[in-house]
């Protein structure tokens, strides 16, 4: 296969690695920037990310590097796959090293504290002249690595940018769809993490499938309502990056956020659950940020409020569920039906 594009992926965690490899397997030359020398050596010498995705063979066209300027040299597209807490720091470093024609893509599913900035907003602030996009969807890294058929959505106001991302990433096992609703696509990915925690908690408490079905339906109503307030298209939430990602992340212990909720549901304190995780669970920070923003905007979010009560105010799960399901239900049902 001829060499096609030169791209960089920033962040050598599970998702950065699998996206880098997907593009490499499509014939592109990929620089994977990370900060752990032992991991870089593992990728370059043994073709394996033995920390985040052991057993997954990485294509020869992926080169791991610790040097950001080396990674950005001669590229046409850069994908950012670091947790939201580090996103702006990394993007600021990128901004002084790339030209205005380089496409910048966020893979991150989180929100920046201190102003409630979405990742697309951070990109617009730090790289105002570059073409930009976000990619989101039901994309458990380990399933993509296992070759399971998966699909994502690339969102940009510029259809040529979406087409270029399709060209880099689309394959027989990883399908790329397009959208112009950037806020809707990225908010779906960020908000579902909150409900994955809630779902893990429900599963740990052996709630019935009917109950969980109701909770997830209300989650979809609640996340759409919040996102519409921020300017998203509600129909986006009926697609892959909305209900698609909500279903996946709320259904499996492969999700870190689900595992956090499961641990809490089994009675583990939050600090203990997090101490046992070596990967990011974005939903924890997103929960506090969304609650504050929803309160500020006057958006009703009973599930968010309830989960916040359990996590940060030590409210009993049974009391919270009684509040959510009986006191607040009329308002949500009204929204779903409208
Ligand atoms: N995993 C998944 O299934 C999916 C994840 N995502 C999203 O992608 C983002 C990344 O997730 P994922 O790869 O799974 O996370 P992981 O926890 O697997 O890895 C995080 C990576 O980010 C790196 N990192 C953190 N801070 C910095 C920094 N300041 N500079 C450079 N590198 C940094 C870490 O480096 P180090 O190892 O040195 O600490 C690590 O390589 C998250 O927002 C997540 O929600 C989206 C879709 C699917
Ligand atoms: O976003 C994901 C799947 O689409 C991954 O979810 P977790 O971050 O909860 O593992």
TrEMBL record:
It catalyses: sn-glycerol 3-phosphate + NAD(+) = dihydroxyacetone phosphate + NADH + H(+); sn-glycerol 3-phosphate + NADP(+) = dihydroxyacetone phosphate + NADPH + H(+). HAMAP family: NAD_Glyc3P_dehydrog. Substrate binds at residues 109, 256-257. Catalyzes the reduction of the glycolytic intermediate dihydroxyacetone phosphate (DHAP) to sn-glycerol 3-phosphate (G3P), the key precursor for phospholipid synthesis. Residues 181-321 form the Glycerol-3-phosphate dehydrogenase NAD-dependent C-terminal domain. It comes from the Bacteria. The gene is gpsA. NAD(+) binds at residues 11-16, 141, 256. This is Glycerol-3-phosphate dehydrogenase [NAD(P)+]. It comes from Parahalioglobus pacificus.
């Amino acid at each position: 296969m001829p060499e096609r594009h030169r791209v960089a992926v920033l962040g050598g965690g599970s998702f950065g690695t699998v996206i880098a490899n997907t593009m490499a397997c499509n014939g592109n030359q990929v620089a994977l920037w990370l900060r752990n020398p032992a991991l870089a050596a593992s990728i370059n010498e043994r073709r394996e990310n033995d920390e985040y995705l052991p057993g997954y063979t990485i294509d020869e066209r992926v080169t791991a590097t610790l040097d950001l300027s080396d990674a950005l040299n001669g590229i046409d597209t850069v994908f950012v796959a670091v947790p939201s807490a580090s996103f702006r720091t990394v993007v600021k470093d990128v901004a002084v090293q790339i030209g205005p024609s380089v496409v910048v893509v966020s893979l991150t599913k989180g929100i920046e504290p201190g102003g409630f900035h979405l990742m697309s907003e951070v990109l617009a602030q730090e790289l105002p002249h570059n073409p930009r996009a976000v990619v989101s969807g039901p994309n458990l890294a380990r399933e993509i690595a296992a070759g399971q058929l998966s699909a994502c959505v690339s969102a940009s106001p510029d259809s040529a940018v979406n087409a270029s991302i399709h060209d880099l990433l689309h394959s027989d096992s990883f399908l790329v769809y397009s959208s112009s609703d950037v806020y809707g696509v990225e908010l779906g990915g960020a908000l579902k993490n909150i409900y994955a925690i809630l779902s893990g908690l429900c599963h740990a408490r052996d709630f019935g499938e009917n109950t969980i079905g109701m909770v997830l339906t209300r989650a979809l109503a609640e996340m759409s309502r919040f996102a519409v307030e921020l300017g998203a298209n509600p129909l986006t939430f009926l697609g892959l990056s909305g209900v698609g990602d909500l279903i996946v992340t709320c259904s499996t212990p492969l999700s870190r956020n689900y595992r956090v909720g499961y641990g809490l549901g089994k009675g583990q304190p939050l600090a203990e659950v997090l101490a046992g995780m070596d990967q990011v669970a974005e939903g924890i920070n997103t929960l506090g940020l969304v609650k504050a923003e929803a309160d500020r905007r006057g958006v009703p979010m009973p599930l968010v409020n309830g989960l916040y009560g359990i996590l940060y105010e030590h409210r009993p799960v049974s009391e919270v569920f009684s509040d959510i399901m009986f006191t607040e239900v009329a308002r949500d049902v009204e929204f779903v039906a409208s």
